[in-house]
Amino acid sequence: MSWLIESVRDARVDAAAVFRLYTDPSTWPDWGHNAKSAHADGPLVEGGIVHVRAGYGKVYPCRIRRLVAGRAMSSRFGRP
Fold first, then answer.
1. DSSP state of 76
2. Has residue 49 been placed in a domain?
3. Using a CB cutoff of 8 Å and minimum separation of 24, what contacts does 37-41 make?
4. Which residue range forms the structural domain that includes residue 54?
5. Residue 64 in contact with residue 42, Cβ under 8 Å?
């Protein structure tokens, strides 16, 4: 089973500033629903894993599926 979460909003912000938040796992609890902590195994690269602790204690691996510097990132929660 897989699922997708997407949220789109118009805002007057610098796209590079938003992208920096997405590519810094330490900020994920600041904007991610139910994320209490997040840390990467190493540098954030395609194929890398970010471990995200949910509010109820379970830790989910999040694999970085695509990363285009300054432009795009997609990830997948679940089994690495």
1. E
2. yes
3. 38/62
4. 36-80
5. no
Q: How far is CA 69 from the centre of its chain?
A: 14
Distance CA 5, CA 62 (A): 13
Could you give the number of structural domains in the chain? 1
On whether residue 60 sits in a domain, the answer given is yes
pTM for the complete prediction? 0.78
List the structure tokens of 57. Answer: 């204690």
- Answer yes or no: is 14 within a domain: no
Look at the block and give the residue holding tokens 């830790």: 59
Please report the sign of the dihedral spanned by the C-alpha atoms of residue 59, residue 2, residue 18, residue 11: negative
Residue 44 located in a structural domain = yes
CA-based R_g, the chain, Å: 13
| Grouped pLDDT means (10 residues each) for the chain, 80 residues | 76 87 92 92 92 94 92 81
